[in-house]
Each structure stands twice: as C-alpha cells, then as structure tokens.
Design brief:
The chain has 14 helices and eight strands. The protein is α/β, with parallel strands linked by helices. The structure holds adenosine-5'-triphosphate and magnesium ion.
C-alpha cells in the first residue's frame, strides 16, 4: 500500500513546479484528481510565516536556539523509521491535556519542512480545542470540519507557508459531534491520499484519555507519537493510555519538560560548544521557557 503511495507521490512531485515556483499560472482543473490529488499543490493559497510568540515555534533564522536541536533529533529518528517502514501519516497525541501535543506537532512539522523537498502538512484534527490557527495566525475556517461536511474543497482548506515546504490545514469551525465526523469514510480516504502529495502528514489531536478521537485516528494512520509532560504524567497514566488504544502503532514517546541541565550535565562541553555565548542572549524569554522542551526518548514498539 505504502509503496503505491510512495510511487504516486514521486509521480506527483515530478509533475509539480519546483519550490519557489509560485502558484501563479493559468487555468488549473476545478479540483484535484480525487485519486492521486494530482494538481492539488498548484491550487493552494499561501500565507506569511508570522508565528505567534506564545507558540514557541522554531525559527529557521535562529537555528541554534533551544529547542531546535531537540526537534532536529526527533526529526532524524522519525525519518530513520520512515526508511524502515511505511510511515507518512503521524498522529501526535498524549494521555492528558496540555502535555505539549500542539507544541510538538507544530515544531516537528516546522523542522521537517526545513529539509529540501520534504513537503510537510500539519493538520489540526483537534476539533475540540483547535489551536494551530492561533499559532500560525491564520483563519480557523475553512478547515477540516468544513471539508468533511462537504462545505469546502481540499485546496480551500490547505495553506502553504510562503516560500517553504510547510503546509497548514486548520481545524475548521466547531462541530457538535467530532467523533461522528471522524468516523466518516472520507477521513480514511483523505488520510490515505494526502501522502501521495506530502511526505509527512502530521496530525495534532486531542488527548487519549479524554476523547476517543486520537485513538480512532491512530487506526487510520501509520504511526503515533505520544507526548508526555514529565512533571505531570505518571507511568501508570501513560500505560493506561497506550493500553486503551485499539491499534497500538506508537512509534515513540516524546518526553516534554525535561530540564536542559538534566540532559546536558554530562555533556557540558558540547552544550557550550553548540550553544555558544553569542546565542545565549538571543530570545532569552523563549529560551527560558523552552529550554525544558526536550525530546528525549523514543522506543520502537513494533
Ligand atoms: N517544552 C515546552 N516549553 C515551553 N512551553 C511549552 C512546552 N511544551 C508546551 N509548552 C506550552 O504549554 C502550553 C500547552 O502546550 P500545548 O498547547 O502544546 O499542549 P497540548 O497538549 O496541545 O494541549 P491541549 O490538550 O489543550 O491540546 C502552550 O502554551 C505551549 O506553548
Ligand atoms: Mg493542543
């Protein structure tokens, strides 16, 4: 199945203009070919890179700032796994609320998009508490919920961050029945087809122990990344969350909230080497907040 996806994606790419070739050109079909999504990229609108400060998103222009290095390390690990198994769609979830799912999903998507030709779609599938649109200061609607209700087309709900490989899909307007919407066969079809265009489709989702949404989405995606806030989540809670999954495709656990001193105390030479004095002063507020943003351990449970 995934080989087919890979082949389709390659075919799709060879038919699209290279990065930077803006979507200016002539008449395009009214909607992408529904089976391959061929033509999708040419119809997508663009937004500026204008992240909200409180989102703590990694800035490509400040590559030495924490937690860039940790997210690059996470990127290396998931990309390595992608080389070993079909892995293009990824649910990011956590046992409980406020553990850093959105923070992790967004920053992983951002660092993925820094790699050449690595088209990355960050999709907000948290219909209960969507925040992606706030982080990137884009409209919440039209988004996924409008698409699933047949009120918007795919090109209308995806935005490309100008000049980058990063694409955003906001959640859309609030719905009374998120789970019913996620049970539509269109969701599965969408998640099977998006990888024909994007190498990574990263889904921000609600917490596992509070809603069944992420559990359901995990059954339709290639892998799940579990974000755990170290200071607030117990091993029991993590175990319960994983045991509750109908389809355990957890590819790793992101330990959020480890202090940098814990991580680097044994490697202080490297810390000062890589985070030299010149970088220390920059964005102190951000660094103070995010220096505990550490992506540490991942276990392949397959
Ligand atoms: N390691 C970190 N360093 C600094 N701030 C962080 C870190 N992790 C999360 N945050 C901040 O904590 C808040 C909660 O994080 P986030 O929104 O990512 O959690 P969430 O799991 O998505 O929450 P929800 O369950 O409500 O969707 C946000 O303001 C985020 O920027
Ligand atoms: Mg969130």
């Amino acid at each position: 199945m995934s080989r087919v996806h890979d082949a389709l994606r390659k075919a799709e790419r060879s038919g699209t203009p290279s990065a930077g070739g803006a979507a200016t050109s002539v008449a395009t079909p009214a909607s992408p070919d529904p089976t391959t999504l061929h033509g999708l990229l040419e119809q997508i609108g663009e937004v500026d890179w204008d992240p909200a400060e409180e989102g703590h998103l990694i800035d490509a222009e400040k590559p030495n700032q924490a937690p860039t290095e940790e997210f690059r390390s996470l990127r290396t690990r998931v990309n390595h796994l992608q080389g070993l198994q079909p892995l293009h769609t990824l649910v990011v979830t956590s046992p409980s609320p406020a553990e850093g799912k959105t923070f992790t999903a967004a920053n992983l998507a951002v660092v993925q998009s820094h790699l050449q030709h690595n088209l990355t779609l960050l999709a907000d599938f948290d219909f209960r508490r969507p925040t992606l649109h706030n982080l990137f200061k884009i409209d919440r609607s039209p988004g996924v919920t409008e698409y699933l209700q047949g009120k918007a087309s795919l090109p209308e709900i995806i935005k490309r961050v100008k000049g980058t490989n990063l694409y955003l899909m906001p959640a859309g307007g609030a719905v009374l029945n998120p789970l019913e919407l996620l049970n539509l066969k269109e969701v599965r079809v969408l998640l099977e087809r998006l990888p024909t265009v994007f190498n990574w489709v990263i889904l921000d989702t609600p917490p596992l122990l509070f809603a069944a949404d992420a559990n359901l989405l995990a059954t339709m995606t290639d892998g799940t990344l579990l974000v755990v806030r170290l200071s607030q989540t117990t091993i029991d809670t993590v175990t319960r969350a994983i045991q509750g999954m109908s389809h355990n495709n957890v590819i790793g656990v992101v330990a959020n909230g480890a202090s940098r001193s814990e991580l680097y105390s044994k490697y202080s030479y490297y810390q000062s080497y890589y985070y030299g004095k010149d970088d220390e002063g920059e964005g102190e507020g951000l660094q103070a907040e995010t220096e505990d943003a550490v992506v540490e351990e991942k276990q392949d449970q397959r």
